[in-house]
Amino acid sequence: MHISNSFAAAPYRVALAGLGAIGQAIARRLDEGIPGCSLAAVAARDERKAKAFVDQLAHPPALAPLPALAQHADIVVECAPAALLAQIAEPVLSAGKQLVVLSVGALLEHPQLEKLAARYGGRILVPTGALIGLDAVAAAAQGTIYSVRMVTRKPIAGLLGAPFLGANNIDIKDLKAPLKLFEGSAREAAKGFPANLNVAVALSLAGIGPDRTMLEIWADPGVTRNTHRIEVDADSARFSMTIENIPSENPRTGRITALSVIALLRKLSAPLRIGT
Quick one: pLDDT at residue 194? Predict the structure, then answer.
């Protein structure tokens, strides 16, 4: 009797929308080999730099414009500026493909993307990213969560250029002591800090939503890591979590973000999957 092995199927073709610090880290790991996945295509703003990068890989992928990525891949990983999310996502989801979203905050500005995925059989995947405990929050959300609060402390370099600072004439370049920049909902934070607080939106989507998930943001010259503390009170458990992420080459993003995407890709074809 022959028993087929479903895990011997053709590998998922993966495309990367963006080749910044995160995109390059994922590309290198895919090139080295992730079981069940292959790097099929990349899209980047600077094609000359992108070509120089992919030419260094053992298995150079195709270079493609953003709208064409879905033609090359089964899964597209978005690791680009948040303003490009809809441009990346719509062709992918309309083709019934899977989209891994790192600019999670931008999902709140584009609710049509979830509807598009449902209509055409696409799927939006949000990796754990720079946060811990999303499985616990998602499990608690099956009951009743009373409150979720997150306090974020970042080095100065990780917050420079945030729209909230410009809109409120806040200069943090020469800050000598910790300064609380913001207190409010995850939805409000996503607007003011679109490149910094994707973790807060992911937390809110796993739990009680972006309007009830409360957030503090601190600029702290005394820290060298992006630090997040989360406190959750629910009818099933009360728990708190702290993570200190080492920044990548892009100070706004932790190194663990790329590793989280890699873990997600490994999980797609794994015969044993750990976590909710």
Answer: 87
